[in-house]
């Protein structure tokens, strides 16, 4: 950015603009612990300036100025992903949208809410509770993830099984398009609001979202079932996901995950070496009683054991999955969109890789549609161990390959999953996305370098050969040593 543009933005935003190197450095990464030697050949992650707008009009002023000077704009709120979705790749402006966190309206008659895109799902849930309303769905990262940020991702999480993805609950969204214009997008507008789902900040800046919500349920019930193998667990999941009155949440964990939870004092010894499925339901008292009976029928049909009394504790821990990081300096892993029919085979293949490589693999996830799960498989990592970290990345590819074997694809793309674009989209679908991007953002200023095409070093052919060679070498990976750090 030229000095004149920087100074103009500083004058416009005062202490809500910063060029301080120390402050800007915090925006150079997200939850992914990626060493500089891997990032620097691919991206310029240090923004020239960070701006913190508080209104749609201020966002429009930023984007209009950026468009006039061809300055990249990357929107960032919670930064709770691991794919560099919200990390700039070409410098420019970081638009910190956390200040767009006001509540606009709550309509208790029509069960709708309109909120600023920077409001967290946790805060929105608390606001709705005062009006005896509840969210239809929310992410497991609700305490930090924002309304606009989750819409810009794929929007699947807790509550998606009965209520669908977030975009099905969105009535309208206010967005600043790449030319600086302010638009209200709906299901029938051009472009439609649906184009924002999974756009990852590449089509504009979401500033407000209007959502369907629901009356606050009068009752809840939480069960936890244990299974001796992944096949029985999958059978239970298929039975539960097919129920007419679907549970609000189905969350599963493998023995590796449950054993670690036990070591951390978060799970029982009884659950430590088995597969488990949390069955969470809400509604009227009559509905939750019926759901409880349905849970037991599904469990008995699939040879599951009821871990009486543990379901409530599992529910209370629903926002703390990444507590697993306590075992080591950090984590590497994958988040995969996987057909439920391939879940058992995927978990068994992961267990086979664990027996061979002893990485300390652990898997958990949510059933988000009757046919699909979001699966997370992780292992310890230490970005200070250069060679070991590189080899850890090779095993991340192995996990993606296992997922693809059973019909899976990455959940979210950003920068780091661009080598797998062909697994996420058909060639025709990807071309359509690129044309939409070109139409709305002809200058390519909105979150450039993400989602649509892999950079040279991440091109599939080069990336695959390199990662496969690394994975085939003698194991030097030391990230798994975290168990001694408890």
Distinctive features:
alpha+beta, Uridine Diphospho-n-acetylenolpyruvylglucosamine Reductase, domain 2, 21% strand, single chain, Uridine Diphospho-n-acetylenolpyruvylglucosamine Reductase, domain 3, globular, Vanillyl-alcohol Oxidase, Chain A, domain 3
Strand fraction: 15-25%
At CATH level 2, the architecture of the largest domain is 3-Layer(aba) Sandwich
Number of helices: 16
Q: What name is given to the CATH topology of the largest domain?
A: Vanillyl-alcohol Oxidase, Chain A, domain 3
* CATH level 1 class label of the largest domain: Alpha Beta
Shape: globular
Helix proportion:
25-40%
Main sheet specs: 8 strands, antiparallel
Task: Name the CATH superfamily classification of the largest domain.
Answer: FAD-linked oxidase, cap domain/gating helix
Number of domains: 3
Number of strands: 19
Determine the structural class based on helices, strands and strand pairing.
alpha+beta
- Give the averaged pLDDT, no decimals: 93
Which consecutive residue ranges, at least 5 long each, have pLDDT under 50? 481-486
- End-to-end separation: 46 Å
Strand order of the largest sheet: 15-12-14-13-17-18-16-19
């Amino acid at each position: 950015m030229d000095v004149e543009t920087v100074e103009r933005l500083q004058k416009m935003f005062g202490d809500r603009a910063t060029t301080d190197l120390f402050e800007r450095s915090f925006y150079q990464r997200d939850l992914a612990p990626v060493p500089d030697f891997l990032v620097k050949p691919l991206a310029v992650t240090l923004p020239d300036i960070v701006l913190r707008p508080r209104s749609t009009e201020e966002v429009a002023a930023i984007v209009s100025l950026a468009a006039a000077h061809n300055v990249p704009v990357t929107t960032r709120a919670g930064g709770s992903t691991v794919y560099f979705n919200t990390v700039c790749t070409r410098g420019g402006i970081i638009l910190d949208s956390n200040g767009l966190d006001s509540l606009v309206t709550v309509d208790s008659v029509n069960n709708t809410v309109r909120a600023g895109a920077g409001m967290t799902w946790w805060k929105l849930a608390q606001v709705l509770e005062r009006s005896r309303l509840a969210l239809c769905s929310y992410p497991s990262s609700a305490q930090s993830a924002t309304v606009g940020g989750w819409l810009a991702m794929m929007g699947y999480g807790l509550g998606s099984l009965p209520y669908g993805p977030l975009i099905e609950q969105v009535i309208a969204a206010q967005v600043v398009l790449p030319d600086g214009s302010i638009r209200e997008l709906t299901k029938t507008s051009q472009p439609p609001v649906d184009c924002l789902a999974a756009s990852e900040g590449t089509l504009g800046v979401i500033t407000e979202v209007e959502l369907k919500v629901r009356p606050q349920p009068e009752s809840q019930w939480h069960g936890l079932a244990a299974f001796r193998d992944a096949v029985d667990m999958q059978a239970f999941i298929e039975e539960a996901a097919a129920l007419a009155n679907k549970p609000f949440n189905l969350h599963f964990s493998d023995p590796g995950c449950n054993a670690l939870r036990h070591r951390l004092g978060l799970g029982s010894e009884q659950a430590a070496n088995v597969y488990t499925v949390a069955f969470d339901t809400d509604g009227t008292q009559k509905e939750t009683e019926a759901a409880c009976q349905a849970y037991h029928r599904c469990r008995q049909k699939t040879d599951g054991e009821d871990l009486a009394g543990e379901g409530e504790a599992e529910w209370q821990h629903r926002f703390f999955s990444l507590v697993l990081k306590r075992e080591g300096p950090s984590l590497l892993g994958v988040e995969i969109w996987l057909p439920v029919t391939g879940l058992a085979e995927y978990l068994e293949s992961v267990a086979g890789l664990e027996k061979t490589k002893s990485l300390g693999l652990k898997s958990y996830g949510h059933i988000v549609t009757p046919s699909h799960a979001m699966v997370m498989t992780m292992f310890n990592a230490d970005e200070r161990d250069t060679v070991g970290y590189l080899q850890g990345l090779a095993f991340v590819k192995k996990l993606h390959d296992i997922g693809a074997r059973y019909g899976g694809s990455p959940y979210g793309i950003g920068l780091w999953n661009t080598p797998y674009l062909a697994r996420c989209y058909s060639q025709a679908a990807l071309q359509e996305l690129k044309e939409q991007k070109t139409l709305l953002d002809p200058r390519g200023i909105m979150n450039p370098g993400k989602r649509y095409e892999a950079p040279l070093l991440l091109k599939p052919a080069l990336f695959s050969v390199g990662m496969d060679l690394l994975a085939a070498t003698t194991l030097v990976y030391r990230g798994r040593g975290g168990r001694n750090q408890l």
